[in-house]
Design goal:
289 residues; mainly alpha
Length: 289
């Protein structure tokens, strides 16, 4: 298969990932009020770890210290990103939380530039800025004044950027599926350790609620197992900065699905944001055509 074809298919796979994450906003809209956030993290990462382990049980014996270390580093970044996002949203609005999380689209090329001394190119920088402005127009409908929740969410974006960078770095030498398993297992373990301290006793009674259970299963199977597996595999064939730009489409899909299924408002400003995001994707992928 041609290199460009592989790159296009990989970008498509990452696009599917963002659509899955975007639809999660619709699925779990009411669930966050019944299941404490860190326990929600613990449930979703545990379901994903068990599911992927069962699917790839024959590969488990190939896990070695190198994969444990590298997958653990990615998992730690993932856990810290979700934890800071979860805590941060309690002190800020959903729009600002979504926007500040997505600043990884700028952090990724800048961090890569800092460590590799290789300029990502003016095209990638412009595409990253377009994506960031697009997300801002989609999500920021309120005050731009920052509070402690905003600062936490900003650091969340940094850890998401590091996760994307580490995936690209370790994918070059490690098995993407095994990295995903270790990454998810690390995030699950850390979530279970911290949940009792932040959220109190486990909300096991909520698992008897069908809607809550279905939401948790969607998060665990689709938003975590399928989405992170797709990200890890597809990012192997996608430039790291381009991957960050594509992943920023999560904001677009979140708004679009909320508009379609929940009847939420889609303003002209948000439509402009969508257009800028798509321009950013086209600009970042222009070498493939």
């Amino acid at each position: 298969m041609r290199k460009n074809t592989i790159a296009i298919l990989s970008s498509l796979g990452m696009l599917i990932t963002t659509a899955i994450w975007g639809f999660a906003f619709v699925v779990v809209k009411d669930t966050v009020d019944t299941v404490p956030p860190v326990y929600m993290m613990a449930f979703r990462f545990t379901i994903a770890t068990i599911g992927l382990t069962l699917i790839c049980v024959k590969k488990i014996k190939k896990i070695n210290p190198s994969i444990l270390l590298h997958g653990g580093i990615i998992g730690l970044c993932l856990f810290l990103a979700y934890l800071l996002q979860t805590i941060g949203i309690q002190y800020t609005t959903a729009g600002k939380n979504a926007f500040l999380t997505t600043v990884y689209v700028i952090f990724v090329p800048l961090i890569l530039w800092l460590f590799t001394r290789k300029f990502p190119g003016i095209r990638i920088i412009i595409a990253s800025i377009l994506a960031l402005v697009g997300v801002a127009l989609l999500t920021l409908q309120d005050s731009l004044i920052m509070n402690k929740g905003d600062v936490m969410t900003l650091f969340c974006g940094i850890f998401f950027a590091l996760q994307i960078i580490f995936i690209a770095h370790y994918n070059a030498t490690e098995d993407a599926i095994l990295l995903t398993i270790v990454q998810l297992a690390t995030a699950a373990l850390l979530s279970w350790i911290l949940a009792p301290f932040l959220d109190g006793p486990a909300p096991l009674e909520q698992l008897t609620n069908t809607r809550t259970l279905l939401s948790i299963l969607y998060l665990g199977i689709f938003s975590t197992l399928v989405a992170f597996l797709l990200q890890n595999i597809c990012q192997k064939y996608t430039h790291t900065s381009v991957a960050a730009i594509i992943l920023s489409l999560e904001a677009f899909f979140g708004v679009a699905f909320s508009w379609i299924f929940l009847g939420e408002t889609l303003t002209p400003t948000m439509i402009v944001g969508c257009i800028l995001l798509f321009l950013a994707i086209v600009l970042s992928e222009i070498d493939l055509f």
